[in-house]
Amino acid sequence: MKRIFSFLTVALCATSGVAAQQTDSISMYQHIQQIEVTAVRAKGSTPIAHSNLTREEIEERNYGEDIPSLLSTLPSVVVASESGTGIGSTSLRVRGTDATRINVTMNGVPMNDAETHSVYWYDTPDLASGVGSLQLQRGVGTSSAGTGAFGASLNMTSAPLSSTFAGRASLSYGSYNTAKQEISLSSGLLGGHWAVEGRLSHISSDGYVDRASSQLGSYMLQAGYYHGSTMVKALSFGGVAKVYLAYTGIDSSMLETNRRYNPEGEIVIDGEVVGYYDDHTDNYLQLNNQLIVNHRFNDRWSISATAHYTYGNGFYRNYKNDQKLAKYGIAPIDVAGVMVARTNLLRKKDMRNDFGGALFSAAYTSKRLSLTMGASASLYDGVHFGTISDLVEAPDFATTEYYRNYTSKWDISCYVKADWEVAKGLNLFADMQYRHITHRISGVNDNFDDTTGAMQRLDILRHYDFFNPKLGIHYTRKGHSAYISAAVGQKEPTRNNFTDIREGEYPRAEKMLDVEAGYNYSSSVVEAGINLYYMFYRDQLVQTGELSDTGELLSRNVPDSYRRGIELQLAVRATKWLTIGGNATFSQNHIKNYVDYIDGTAFERGRTTIAYSPSITALAYADFHIKGFGAVWTTRYVSKQYLTNGEYEDLTLPRYTVSDLDLSYTLRTKKVEKVRFGVKIKNILNAKYCASGYGGSWLEGATLAERKSWACYFPQATINALANVTINF
Fold first, then answer.
1. In DSSP terms, which residues pair with 672 in a beta bridge?
2. CA distance linking residue 250 with residue 245, whole number of Å
3. Whose CA is closest to 426, among 459, 472, 380?
C-alpha cells in the first residue's frame, strides 16, 4: 500500500509539474503575441485620458456596424452615418475633431490614408470581428506611427491566436435588409508551435437613406509560429466594398416631406428627375498585410518588429447632369452640325495606391522603470486618374481621360518613452518623438483652373520636420489617482489643403499644445473620473468660405484657436446585477478673430465657435445582467453644432437625443463554449434627428444683414432593430 501511495504521489507531482509547465507555456504564448501593444498603449499610470474596450466588450457590441458605431458610448465621441444605419460611410469625431486628425493604427501600423489622413471604415469591412482590443486616447496621446493625432488616437490590436481549437459563427439580420454572416476557425497550437486562424464575413444593407446600399465582403487570415520566447505572426485582412453614394444631404423642406431621399444618382432631363443611375457607386479593394516578430529576452527586455504592406485599388462612378465640357478640359463637340458644350455625362474617378514600411520597438521594464524606444519608416505611392464617357448629347463620344496625377510620401519617425516610479505611487512620464515627412504631388488634377483655362497643374514638394515632446506626472494611492500632462502635436496639411489653393498660397503645418489634468477614483462600488483639457492650436487649418482658383472651398491657417473642456465619467455598481453611469463633456471650441468670406467679401466675426464642435455631449446608461440575461439602455445627447466657422444661428445642426436598447441572453454548455442571442433596438424612442450636415451663405447686397443661407443635412434612421446569434465553440 505504501508503494502504491508513493507511486501515486510521484505521478501526481509529475503531472502537476507538466500542467504547470503547460500553463506557463500558454501564458508566455499569450503574452508574446501582444508585445507590440506596449509601444502605443497608455497604461494605468500614463497621464493621458483614454478608454479601453476588451475583446468581450467588442463582441457584445458587434452586430455588423462600422467601428465608429462601437465607440459611440465613449466620452467626447460623436458618430454620424451617411446611410443612416452605421454601416457604409460612417464618420467619427472626438472632442469636435474630425477623422483627418484622429490617428488610427492596427498593431501599431498606420491605417489613415496618407493623403486625406482619414480612415474609410468600409474599406476594411467588419473589422470589429477581428479586433482583439482597442484603446481610444483623447488629445495628443502617446507617440505612434502615421499622421499626427490632433484630437484623438485609436489603436487596435488583432485578436490573438487561440491556444486551443476554437471557432465562431455569427448571423445578424434586421431593418432595411441589413444582414451579416461571419465564420471563423482557429486551429489552436499545433505541435506546440504553430497556429492558424481564418475569418470570412459578408455584410449587406439597403440603408435607411434611399439607395444608400452597402455590399461588404471581408477576410482575416493569421498564421503564427511560437517557440520559447519568440513569436512570428503573419496577418492579412481587408475586403471588397461596393457602396451606393449618399454624400449629398437634403434641405430642411425635404426633411419634412421625405427625409430618406437621396439626390445622388439623379437623371435629370429637361429639368425633371426621370430616374436614377444604378451604378452610382464607390468601389474599393483593400488588402492589409503584416509580418510581426515578437521576442522576449528575459523579464526585462523585449522587442517587436513589423513589416507591412497595404494595397488599395478603387473607383467611384457618378452620373452628372448638365455639365460644361470645358470643366473637364473638353472642347465643344460637333454633333450633326450642332456644337454641344453642355450635356449629361458619366464620370469615373480611379485611384491605386501602395503603402508599405516597417516598425521596430524595444521595451525595458524593471520594478520602477518602463522604457520604450521605437522607429518607423513608410512610403506611400499613389495615382489618381479620371475619365469621361457616355455623353447623352454625343452618343459616339469616345471615353476620354481628363486628369492623372501622382503622389509619393515618405514618413519617418522615432521616439523614446519613459515611465519612472520615483516614489511609491508617483510616476513621471516622458515621450519624445521626431518625425520627418517628404510629400510630392505632380501631374494634372481634376479641378478646372479658371485662371489658366485648363485643368489644374500640380507640382508640389514639401518637407516637414517635427519634434513632439510630451511630459506628465501621475499619482496613485488607495483607489485615488491624479495626473497632469503637457504635450505638443504637429501635423502636415492634407492633399486637399495643397490642391484647393490660390496660386502660390501654400498651407503651413498645424501645431498644438495640449495641457490636461485629471482625477479618478475606483472602488468595488464606484468609479468616477474628471479630466480637464486645454488644446491650444497655432495655424489650425479651417475652411473660411473663400474659393480657390478652381472654385473649391479654401482652407486657411488661422493663427489662434483652442478647444477647452471638462470630461466627467461615473459608474455605480448599485447591485451585483445592475450598474448605472454615464459620461459628459462640457467644452468651448473657438477661433480667435475669425474672418469669414461670403461671395468674396470679408467679414470680421471676432471669436467664433469651430464648426461641428458641440459644447455638450453626454451619455447615460443602465446595465442589467443576471444569469445569462443582459439588458443595456443607453441615451446619448449632443448639443447644437454650427455648420460653418462663422457662427450663424441659421446654419446649425440642431441638438438631438437618441436612445438604444440592447437585449441579450447567453447560454453555456459543455459542448459549446457559449451561444449568445442578441437584439439591438436603436433609436428606440423614434427620434427624428440629423448627426451631420453642411451649409453656406451668399449675399443679396453688401452687408451681413443681406446675407442668405442654405444648408443640407444627413438624417439618421428612426427606430430600427438588429438581431444576432453568435456561437463560440
1. none
2. 14
3. 472
Condensed to tens digits (0 to 9), the pLDDT of residues 463-513 reads: 999 999 999 999 999 999 999 999 999 999 999 999 998 888 899 999 999
The cell for 306 is 513589423
Q: What is the pLDDT of residue 33?
A: 75
**452, pLDDT greater than 70:** yes
Q: Is 662 helix (H, G, I), strand (E, B) or coil?
A: strand
Q: What integer pLDDT is reported at residue 11 of this predicted model?
A: 36
Backbone angles phi, psi at 560, to 5 degrees: -130, 130
User: Side-chain half-sphere of 709: how many Cα atoms within 13 Å?
Assistant: 19
Query: Which residue type sits at 24?
Result: D
List the alpha helices (DSSP H) in 127-250: none
Q: Are 724 and 664 in contact (CB under 8 A)?
A: no
Q: Is the pLDDT of residue 15 over 70?
A: no
Local structure of 670: helix, strand or coil: coil
Contacts of residues 568-574 at CB distance under 8 Å and 24 or more positions apart, as own/partner, are 568/529, 568/530, 569/75, 569/527, 569/528, 569/529, 569/530, 570/526, 570/527, 570/528, 570/529, 571/526, 571/527, 571/528, 572/525, 572/526, 573/524, 573/525, 573/526
Cβ atoms within 10 Å of 699's Cβ, excluding its own: 16
Burial group, residue 361, by CB count within 10 angstroms (0-12, 13-18, 19+): buried
How confident is the model over 714-729, as a mean pLDDT?
97
User: What ranges make up the beta strands (E) of 683-719?
Assistant: 690-699, 707-715
What gap in Å lies between CA 190 and CA 503, rounded to an integer?
62
| pLDDT on residue 25 | 56
CB 512 within 8 A of CB 552: no
Q: For residue 449, which of 499, 496, 493, 404 has the smallest C-alpha distance?
A: 499
pLDDT at 5: 38
Within 8 A by CB and 6+ apart from 421, the residues are 45, 367, 368, 369, 427
Helix (H, G, I), strand (E, B) or coil at 377: strand
List the one residue out of 512, 597, 518, 522 whose CA is nearest residue 152: 512
Residue 522: pLDDT band with limits 50, 70, 90: very high
Going by C-alpha positions, the residue among 53, 38, 303, 34 that lies closest to residue 154 is 53
Contact 473/428 with Cβ under 8 angstroms? yes
Report the DSSP beta bridge partners of residue 591: 561, 608
Helix (H, G, I), strand (E, B) or coil at 295: strand
**Cα 10 to Cα 2: distance, rounded to the nearest angstrom:** 12
Q: What is the DSSP letter of 29?
A: H
C-alpha cell at 356: 508599405
Taking CA 546 as the corner, what is the angle to CA 541 and CA 551, rounded to the nearest 5 degrees? 110
CB 329 within 8 A of CB 402: yes
Q: How far is CA 345 from CA 76, 324, 437, 448, 453, in A?
A: 43, 10, 39, 17, 21
